[in-house]
């Protein structure tokens, strides 16, 4: 097993591992260690199907079920695709399933709108368009480190409310039903800075679901989050991944933000399957 750096501050490619084959505890411990340290692992040339993806994902912890509005809602898979899974036909641009996926193009951390936010996501490239459709990642540990001390002090203990109604409203206000907004996925409090329990490194925890700062006036909170976002996604903290079929990326949702980028979904096919590993508890005690 070998590791090759992808970016100066985060991300490594892992060579010499077939994730579909049994991995003993010692080999997996090296993978887990690299995940904690680098925040993103790329495995190329993997011949994954849903079952092998689930089995490897479960080595990181129990999996989440996907939010009901995703095209694969209620299963273990979040599907980022323009293909109707039953017919294999391209889904039209104005179909709600495509509109729902548009919010992926905003910087976010998967499941930060849940009481227990996710640990990590595993995204495997099954069908890749010949151009476009990169996924971009940003290192929120490096972003935190770069903040002025006064901002770090302000962030100490600060809590923000995350909500999927907020992020989806940015692309289409009618996308979610009242029941989904208030019963299935009401706003949830999250610490704005998270500390990795293994490395002790701090990371900004913001993104598209982050709607307001608890205890602050609405506009002041929004302006602060916007200002933090601008720092967080400076080019030197970002890595853009150009997918090849057979790629699998595992990323740490506690320490990175990510977003989808456009591709021509009328001309080209794209099928990405994501499994999401649940976190080990809420970030804020209530
Ligand atoms: C995701 C996601 C980005 C992409 O699967 O969580 O944001 O490029 N995907 O499909
Ligand atoms: Mn995502």
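^ structure tokens above, recovered residues below v
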């Amino acid at each position: 097993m070998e590791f090759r750096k992808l970016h100066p501050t985060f991300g490594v490619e892992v060579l010499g591992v077939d994730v579909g084959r049994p991995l003993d505890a010692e080999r997996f411990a090296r993978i887990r260690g690299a995940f904690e340290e680098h925040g993103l692992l790329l495995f190329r040339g993997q011949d994954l199907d849903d079952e092998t993806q689930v089995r490897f994902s479960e080595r990181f912890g129990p999996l989440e079920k996907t939010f009901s509005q995703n095209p694969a809602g209620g299963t273990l898979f979040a599907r980022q695709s323009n293909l109707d899974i039953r017919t294999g036909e391209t889904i039209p641009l104005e179909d709600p399933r495509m509109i729902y996926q548009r919010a992926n193009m905003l910087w976010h951390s998967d499941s930060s709108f849940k009481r227990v936010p996710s640990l990590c996501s595993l995204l495997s490239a099954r069908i890749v368009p010949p151009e476009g459709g990169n996924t971009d990642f940003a290192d929120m540990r490096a972003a935190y480190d770069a903040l002025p001390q006064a901002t770090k002090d302000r962030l100490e203990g600060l809590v923000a409310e995350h909500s999927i109604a907020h992020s989806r409203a940015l692309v289409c206000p009618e996308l979610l039903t009242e029941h989904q907004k208030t019963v299935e996925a009401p706003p949830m409090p999250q610490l704005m800075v998270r500390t990795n329990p293994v490395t002790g490194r701090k990371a900004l925890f913001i993104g598209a679901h982050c709607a307001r700062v608890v205890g602050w006036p609405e506009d002041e909170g929004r302006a602060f989050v916007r200002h933090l976002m601008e720092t967080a996604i400076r080019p030197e903290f970002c890595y853009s991944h150009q997918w090849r079929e057979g790629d699998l990326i595992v990323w740490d949702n506690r320490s990175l933000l990510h977003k989808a980028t456009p591709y021509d979904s009328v001309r080209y096919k794209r099928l990405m399957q994501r499994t999401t590993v649940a976190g080990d508890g809420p970030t804020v005690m209530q």
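The chain has a mean pLDDT of 95.
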